[in-house]
C-alpha cells in the first residue's frame, strides 16, 4: 500500500494571533515520473474539490505512483470561514475585496530575460534553472518582500511555492450553479480529452492572476522567448483548472467519478502506472476563452433559468424568464430573455433574485467538438 505523509502549512495569522493552517498530503513517487500538485477550495463555497482529493487519496493508496504527488484540500481557511447565515461568502478577500484566485504572482519579464541569458543550456538545465529562477523571484517579491504583501498575496504565494515544485498543477474549483468544465491552455489541447469533462475552455498565454496561469504562463512564455531566438523547446510544465459542479454542494459519489477522471489523466501522463483508468467516451465541446460569453440581466426581477447545461441552444432560444411582481396586471409582467446566438450554457448565477446587469449565464459560443 502506498504511504501517504501528512503535514500542515501555516498560511495566515488572524489579528488575535491565531494561526491558520492547511493540510498537506504527500505521496513519494517510486521513480522519476512527473510530479503533481493538486489543491482545492481556494474559494470558500467551492467545497466539492475536497471530496475529490479524499477520493484520490483513497484510490492512490493502491496505485503504483511513479511521480511525487502533493494534495492540498481546504486551501483557503480564511475564505472557508467567511460565512453569512447559511451561505459561504469566501470568494473575495474581505479586507481588499479582491478575488482570492487572482492573488498569484507572475513576473512577465523573467522568461525573456532568462532565455536571453541562457541560450546554450540543455533542456534539462533549462528546466532546473528556470524553476529555481521563478522560485527565487516569488520568494523575493512576495514571501520575503521587505515591504510585505497583501493577505491574499501571501496566502497565494505559499500555495504557489509548493506548486512551483511540480510538473503538473491541477486547481479544483466549482461554479455558482454549474456543469463540469475545464480551463485548458491552448498549447495542451491534446490533453483535454484525457479528462471526463464535456466542456473545455481554451485559454491563451496571458496572465490574469489565477493559479493555473501563474503555473503555465512562465513556462509557455519561456518557450516563446526561445522560439524568438530560433530554438524550439516544449512547454515543460502544464496546469489546468477543473470546475467540478456547483458551489455549496458536496457529493462523494460524484467525487469518485471526478477522481477517476483525474487518475486517467495522471496515468496517461506517466504519474501512475498501469491501465486501470481510461477517459470515458463522450462528446466534448471546446471554445476559445474569448468566445466564452457572459449574458447579463437586461432588467431586474425574479429569474427562472430555462436552459439546461450542455444543450445546444439555437439563436433566439429561451434562456431565462424574469418575473416582475411589482408590475402585476401589466402586459410585461414576465420578460423572456433569449440566446443572442447559438450557444451552450455552462453555468448560471446562483440566485433567483437579480439586479439589472447581473450575470445570468455563461455560455460557449463558436464552439467545436474535440
Report on the structure:
Strand 3 (36-40), helix 1 (48-60) and strand 4 form a beta-alpha-beta unit. Strands 1-2-4-3-7-11-9-10-12-20 form a ten-stranded mixed sheet, sandwiched between helices. A four-stranded antiparallel sheet has the order 8-17-19-13, with no helix packed on it. It has a four-stranded antiparallel sheet with strand order 16-15-14-18, with no helix packed on it. The protein is globular and about 75 Å long. It has helices at residues 48-60, 77-80, 110-117, 123-143, 151-163, 211-228, 252-268, and strands at 5-13, 19-27, 36-40, 69-72, 83-84, 87-88, 168-175, 177-178, 180-185, 199-203, 238-246, 285-288, 292-296, 301-305, 318-323, 334-338, 343-348, 353-354, 359-365, 368-369. The two termini are 37 Å apart. Helix 1 (48-60) crosses helix 7 (252-268) and helix 4 runs antiparallel to helix 5. The chain contains seven helices and 20 strands. The longest helix has 21 residues, at 123-143. With 370 residues, it is α+β, with helices and mostly antiparallel strands.
SSE arrangement:
Elements: E1 5-13, E2 19-27, E3 36-40, H1 48-60, E4 69-72, H2 77-80, E5 83-84, E6 87-88, H3 110-117, H4 123-143, H5 151-163, E7 168-175, E8 177-178, E9 180-185, E10 199-203, H6 211-228, E11 238-246, H7 252-268, E12 285-288, E13 292-296, E14 301-305, E15 318-323, E16 334-338, E17 343-348, E18 353-354, E19 359-365, E20 368-369
Parallel strand pairs: 3-4, 3-7, 7-11, 9-10, 10-12
Antiparallel strand pairs: 1-2, 2-4, 5-6, 8-17, 9-11, 12-20, 13-19, 14-15, 14-18, 15-16, 17-19
Helix pairs in contact: 1-7, 3-6, 4-5
Amino acid at each position: 500500500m502506498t504511504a501517504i505523509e501528512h503535514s500542515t502549512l501555516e498560511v495566515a495569522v488572524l489579528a488575535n494571533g491565531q494561526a491558520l493552517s492547511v493540510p498537506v498530503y504527500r505521496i513519494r513517487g517510486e521513480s522519476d515520473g512527473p510530479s503533481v500538485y493538486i489543491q482545492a477550495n481556494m474559494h470558500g463555497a467551492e467545497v466539492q474539490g475536497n471530496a475529490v482529493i479524499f477520493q484520490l487519496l483513497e484510490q492512490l493508496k493502491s496505485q503504483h505512483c511513479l511521480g511525487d504527488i502533493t494534495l492540498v484540500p481546504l486551501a483557503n481557511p480564511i475564505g472557508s470561514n467567511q460565512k453569512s447565515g447559511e451561505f459561504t461568502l469566501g470568494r473575495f478577500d474581505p479586507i481588499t475585496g479582491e478575488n482570492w484566485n487572482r492573488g498569484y504572482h507572475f513576473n512577465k519579464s523573467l522568461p525573456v530575460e532568462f532565455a536571453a541569458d541562457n541560450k546554450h543550456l540543455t533542456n534539462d538545465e533549462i528546466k532546473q534553472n528556470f524553476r529555481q529562477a521563478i522560485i527565487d523571484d516569488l520568494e523575493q517579491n512576495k514571501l520575503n518582500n521587505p515591504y510585505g504583501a497583501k493577505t491574499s498575496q501571501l496566502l497565494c504565494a505559499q500555495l504557489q511555492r509548493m506548486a512551483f515544485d511540480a510538473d503538473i498543477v491541477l486547481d479544483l474549483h466549482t461554479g455558482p450553479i454549474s456543469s463540469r468544465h475545464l480551463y485548458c491552455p491552448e498549447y495542451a489541447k491534446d490533453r483535454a480529452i484525457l479528462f471526463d469533462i464535456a466542456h473545455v475552455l481554451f485559454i491563451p498565454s496571458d496572465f490574469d492572476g489565477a493559479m493555473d496561469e501563474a503555473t503555465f504562463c512562465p513556462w509557455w512564455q519561456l518557450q516563446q522567448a526561445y522560439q524568438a531566438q530560433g530554438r524550439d523547446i516544449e512547454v515543460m510544465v502544464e496546469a489546468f483548472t477543473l470546475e467540478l459542479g456547483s458551489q455549496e454542494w458536496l457529493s462523494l459519489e460524484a467525487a469518485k467519478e471526478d477522481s477517476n477522471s483525474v487518475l486517467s489523466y495522471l496515468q496517461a501522463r506517466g504519474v501512475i502506472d498501469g491501465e486501470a483508468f481510461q477517459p470515458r467516451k463522450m462528446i466534448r465541446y471546446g471554445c476559445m476563452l474569448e468566445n466564452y460569453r457572459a449574458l447579463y440581466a437586461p432588467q431586474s426581477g425574479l429569474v427562472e433559468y430555462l436552459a439546461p447545461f450542455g444543450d445546444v441552444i439555437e439563436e433566439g432560444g429561451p434562456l431565462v424568464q424574469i418575473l416582475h411582481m411589482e408590475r402585476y396586471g401589466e402586459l410585461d409582467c414576465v420578460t423572456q430573455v433569449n440566446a443572442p446566438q447559438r450557444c451552450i450554457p455552462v453555468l448560471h448565477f446562483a440566485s433567483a433574485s437579480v439586479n439589472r446587469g447581473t450575470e445570468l449565464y455563461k455560455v460557449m459560443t463558436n464552439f467545436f467538438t474535440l
